[in-house]
Specification:
Strand order of the largest sheet: 2-1-5-4-3-8-9
Number of strands: 9
CATH architecture: 3-Layer(aba) Sandwich
Distance between the termini: 13 Å
CATH class: Alpha Beta
Shape: globular
CATH topology: Glutaredoxin
CATH superfamily: Glutaredoxin
Helix content: 25-40%
Strand content: 15-25%
Radius of gyration: 18 Å
Order of helices and strands: EEEHHEHEHEEEEHH
Number of domains: 1
Length: 212
């Protein structure tokens, strides 16, 4: 079931912030009422596509900050592995220089609750728990508004890297809708003309989505 229009699942977990400081009880609740959040999952530290994505997010971090949007990453690796990766130079496959938070979903419950955990679990003939597939996170991207409601969901399979500029475009669309009460047509970009509607109809739609 998609989380779109629903409250984002709440969690507390260890995370690495500011490129190397570990906090044990990181939560997205700290952003409620203050900022929208781009919360994204990636499969694994020390892999191939993942560093290109995380470094690209860092490259555009100032543009997310300009829009008052918090950027938070998450994988099923441990916080120790996150720290090691953050302290590895880019030339050696690391992500040194990344400063936004990286959550450690070691229990895999966060990825599961957000609907992006790969693999499946079942019991064999000996009543033993077995896993089929890879129990790591797909490349899930979630835009969470200031009230904690999920407004955008995108999930890529493991070999498909994201376009960070497209995520910024989604943020721009959402903020335009909220600010002007207009809706954004196909291929809309910041500064383009949107479609006028009534602020009341937008408000009613968003309220209805929140209450469902």
């Amino acid at each position: 079931m998609s989380l779109l229009g629903s409250q984002a699942p709440i969690f507390k977990a260890a995370a690495v912030i500011n490129g190397g400081t570990v906090v044990v009880d990181f939560s997205l609740k700290q952003f409620l009422g203050k900022q929208e959040v781009i919360f994204f999952f990636y499969p694994k530290d020390f892999t191939f596509i993942c560093p290109t994505e995380l470094l690209s997010f860092q490259q555009y971090l100032s543009q997310f900050i300009e829009r008052n949007v918090a950027l938070v990453g998450c994988s099923t690796d441990t916080e120790e592995t996150h720290c090691a990766w953050l302290n590895t130079p880019k030339t050696k496959g690391g992500i040194a220089g990344v400063t936004y938070p990286l959550v450690a979903d070691t229990s895999k419950t966060i990825a599961s609750n957000y609907g992006v955990l790969g693999g499946s679990w079942s019991y064999n003939d000996h009543n033993q728990l077995v896993c089929s597939g890879l129990p790591i996170a797909y490349r899930g991207t979630f835009l969470i508004d200031k009230e904690g409601i999920v407004r955008y969901v995108s999930i890529n399979d493991l070999p498909l890297g994201r376009n960070i500029k497209e995520i910024l475009r989604v943020v721009d669309m959402w903020q335009h809708v909220i600010q002007y009460g207009e809706v954004c047509p196909a291929n809309w970009a910041r500064g383009d003309q949107a479609i006028q509607t009534t602020s009341e109809s937008i408000s009613n739609y968003l309220t209805l989505n929140t209450e469902l």
